[in-house]
Amino acid sequence: MTKRYAKKIAAVQGAATAEIQGLFRELEARWRKSAMVVGVIEDCQEQAQRACGGGELVEIPSGRRHVIYQSLGRGSDACCLDPAGVVTACESIRRDIRPGCDLVVLSKFGKLEIGGSGLTSAFVAAIEIEVPILTSVAPMFQNEWDAFAAPYYELLPPDAGAIDNWWRSVASHEFRLAG
Q1: How does strand 37-43 pair with strand 56-60?
Q2: Where does 2-55 show beta strands of DSSP type E?
Q3: Rounded to 10 degrees, what is the CA torsion of 114, 21, 122, 91?
Q4: Nearest-10 crossing angle of helices 17-31, 160-171
Q5: In the predicted model, is pLDDT for residue 4 greater than 60?
Q6: In whole angstroms, what is the distance from residue 169 CA to residue 116 CA?
Q7: What's the predicted TM-score (pTM) here?
Q8: pLDDT at 2 over 50
Q9: Where are the beta strands (DSSP E) in the chain?
Q10: Nearest-5° Cα angle at 103, 36 to 23
Q11: CB atoms < 10 A from the CB of 112, how many?
Q12: Read out DSSP for 98-111?
């Protein structure tokens, strides 16, 4: 029987941002009992009234909140994501990514990361010290994600069991660096 090895980066895809971030919160709460988990999870509670995403990034494990929403005035249909808030959150969590942490949860890889901003330096910091990463990627950014992370990631469905299986495999050091 051939043993299946997990890749160190898991990208979740296939559900709305709020659903995926809720899964991340649920799993992180369970995993932190036995692992040092750092990173950020997006709090999407008030996004339904906006033209686009952007709410708050919540740091793991401190709970510190970073506003990533900018008010553009009534009736605006422009993207209200505040890049400065995301960069501030990234710099804060990048300092937590160091040897000894077991997992880095980064809410998503999106348009800011495609441009080399947003959470990019946190992704790079975790990759450099070979700490597993859990993130999400919208299908519209799949090509850019492939250019950034292939072949070092596996795509997972928004299913707690599938994500938990990936984590158990990685936590038991059954991972591979190459595709």
Answers
A1: antiparallel
A2: 6-7, 9-12, 37-43
A3: 110
A4: 40
A5: no
A6: 30
A7: 0.87
A8: no
A9: 6-7, 9-12, 37-43, 56-60, 65-67, 103-109, 133-137, 153-156, 175-176
A10: 100
A11: 18
A12: -BTB-EEEEEEE-H
